[in-house]
Specification:
CATH superfamily: Glutaredoxin
Largest sheet: 3 strands, mixed
Low-confidence stretches: 1-19
Mean pLDDT: 86
Number of strands: 5
Helix content: 40-55%
Radius of gyration: 17 Å
Order of helices and strands: EEHEEHHEHHH
Strand content: 15-25%
Structural class: alpha+beta
CATH class: Alpha Beta
Number of domains: 1
Distance between the termini: 8 Å
Length: 173
Amino acid sequence: MRLVSLRSFQIPAIFSSGSRLMAQSAGSSGGKRLVQVDISSDTVCPWCFVGKKNLDKAIASSQDQYDFKIKWHPFFLNPSAPKEGVNKKEFYTNKFGSRSEQIVTRMTEIFKGLGMDYDMSGLTGNTLDSHRLLYLAGQQGLEEQHKLAEELFIGYFTQGKYIGDRQVQIFLL
């Protein structure tokens, strides 16, 4: 996969607003029912990561009864976010004001409950390239796409990585 191809790639607009999770069940070979899940998410949305972790737990506890097909779709919480990135803490303070401390405290608690540390260091910004990577990973297989979503979330939320950085993207490939 060449990163040069990412510059001209356009993601089709699938959903206009709000994040959505849609699931559909159908019969599949092998006696298990197939559950198809479509996830619309932004790669800088902490609740999307929490939802993914809970979905993964549900899948693990029922994979003997069901087969799962999970497909990620782009959603942009802040489509006009700068490409070069801005300090994550400052962004939260500017966006949420005095509530930012409460939000960070709550997310820290939620992440601890999932066995992870919530890291507010690093930059945040435009997520278009991370969605491009997810799309391209999906072309390799939906399991690859799901694994990459996990890596993007872990990098951003627990390691302070700026997922808009080309070097981080190359590392994740």
